[in-house]
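To make the argument concrete, we let one protein speak, a sequence paired with a row of structure tokens, as a model reads it:
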Amino acid sequence: MKKSIYDILNENGIKAKSYEGNTKNKCPRCQPPHNKNDNPLSLSCDGTSAVWNCHHCGWSGGTSTSTNNFVTAREKIYVAPKLPEKTETPSTMYTWFSERGISKETVQKKEIYIEDKYWIAFPYKDEEGKVVNIKYRTQSKKFKQSPNAKRSLYNYDLAKDSDTVIFVEGEMDVLTMIDAGYENTVTLPDGAPKECKLNPKDKRFTALENCPLKAKKIILFVDNDSAGASLHKELLHRFGKEVCWYVDYPQDCKDANEVLLKHGVSKIKEIIQNAKPYPIDGLFSAHQYYGSVLDLYNGNYVKPINIGYKNLDEIYKILKGTFHTITGIPNHGKSSFLDMCLVKISENHNWRYAIFSPEHSTQMHLRRLVQLKVQKAFDEGFTNRMTKEELQKGLEWINERFYFIETKDTTPDVDYIIEKAKAAVLKYGCDALVIDPYNEVSAVRKGNAREDEHIRDFISKLKRFARVHECVVFCVAHPTKLPKNTDGSYMAPTAYDISGASHWSNQSDAILTVHRDFDDNSIQVITRKIREQGLYGSIGEAHFQYNQTKRIFEEKVETHITDIPHWSDS
């Protein structure tokens, strides 16, 4: 039998004053620590679903009669607002919009109305035309939204299927663009951030996840001020330069509505028609780069990061937008060394990763990562085995930073991996893609393409992905040839020992060899290639010794830097 919202809440200790609307109630989790007269639990119900949050202990969650589920914290359940049975649309409202150049027809089309005499209500609709949120504003620019409503894009119902979408800043600009003939215009509900932080958890951009756009072209027509510049950068990061276009504003205007009032509809159309794509690939004059070259001269450029190992940092640095190859003989520690570096980078720089690593199960990969984070043994039999609490804490830390690309039935090709990695960059703010190893990527070749042509295409696609989305690609590649020393031991392989060697050598921005000495349980890390030596490292070696107690490799004191001229600036 289907339970009512009343039954579900009461069974779980929430006894509300009302099961419709917004109420303040006792919290079953933190009574009695808070004052007995306090009602810290905010509850919002619509008769079929409910969400709550305790302002004293922080307990939050939601439930719904459709599932009879009682959900806490992380699973969001939205409450859709209810429109008044009869909306008010006084003539003064239309006059107010008219003074801003917006027609009565457009206001009516978007079903805008007045609530409580002062609030102008802008209904937000989903792809099916259902109201999921209502944003309110006064004439004096006070704003509010429906409590616990789903964040969505304004005008999404009209723009969702468009090949081209125009992004503006605010509902008034959307109405302006509709009047100008551009119904394919949307805006975020929460305005522009004061500064660009590229934070994947920024709730201002939740609407982008809730309202996926099909557009192949997105014109950024946000406000021409500092907040608009921050929003511009945020959207550019999330959508990617390959689909974004920018506009040139008149000097005397800061938003689309001001353009309309000062210059008319014709100017808006001119701005949209003259929108420019971001240069990704193409031919440019030296003059276009003058500013960036001057910045380079003055030292004002994006600096590479250090991993956090003193000697390794002297010869190897990491810059976003680059492609790195890690090679080495199987079972010589390539993957372990790379994982160790990923953990270290995340500790020092809070990086996040999308990982395709099919050689081991994700569970075993997590086992290795948590050992590196906790620096204790995972398995029984070790005196320093991590506790369950340390395991849980370590996994929670990893959960915030590592995202795994998997398929169940087939081996994915590079296009599939890039698609998922792009989603990880846009949704979770991932800073790097890890492919470990290349050999496990499906070799789907175009026509009769040779293996070396396939490798060239593979690396080219990943390099473009790294540049466009300003992230790093780490790719582990096994050698095919295993050269030996005179004593029978294996020599440390180079990029030329990887299948399709010329492409790995020519296209990689950095090449590392990880080579293990089993006699003393150490590894040698050799930088075989560093593009732009001096800025991003040099050719040399760093040495690590395995710490059995901590289950990690620790850096030795010595580092060897050599000069190999033929790799210089290649």
Observations:
- The chain has three domains: 5-72, 91-277, 310-565.
- The longest strand covers residues 552-561.
